[in-house]
Amino acid sequence: MSENKMREYYAQRAQTLEKVYQKPERQQDLREIQGKVLDVLKDKRVLEVACGTGYWTERFAPVAASVVATDYNQPMLDVALAKTYPEGKVQFALADLHDLPAATADQYTTCFAGFFWSHVMRDDQTSLLGHLSKVTGKGTTLVLIDNNYVEGSSTVVARTDLEGNTFQLRKQEDGSRVEILKNFPTDSALRKKFGPAVRDIRIFRNTYYWMLTCILK
Predict the structure, then answer these.
(1) Mind listing the domains of the chain with CATH numbers?
(2) What global pTM score does this model have?
(3) Please, which pLDDT band fits residue 2 given cuts at 50, 70 and 90?
(4) CA torsion angle for 126, 129, 135, 141 (degrees, to 10)?
(5) Which helix (H) or strand (E) segment is 113 a member of?
């Protein structure tokens, strides 16, 4: 699907997007992954990309040293800006990841992206890792969290393309349906893709979520 279609979909979903975190069967796993995020981001200077509604920003900001949270979708940022954060610690910016300037020396120690990697086309992932290294600086820790596919809980995969990207049909607020890119990589696929661009890859999974940490080269 086109980038504009993806942007329109999430703009429509801004007010209701966080309902996905309310699924009863996911609560224990959600608490577990949140605890791991807080541990790894404690006292870090964080660049958050694709922050969306600020759901994760709100949770890790109290333990981080500082946060610059970015998204390219103003309706999402409007929701994020309405939340409460530690005074003077969090900045929000309307910005496309691909247009972010290179970091100044020691500006960031960590880059965080929640539920973003699954929306990146497989052919674009290598170049994106290189771009993140330029934006945040070599030696920065990259932290990704995302979904596992769980039969009966996840939206059914509707289509797989020739490159192995998988797509779901999502219902919009106006009742229409739109095809959304949503990949569910295995550990081996993640290690193969990340291996040339990073070091010290660590992957954790529970039933519903996975987390990857690594150091950008």
Answers:
(1) 3-150+186-216 (3.40.50.150)
(2) 0.95
(3) low
(4) -170
(5) strand 110-114
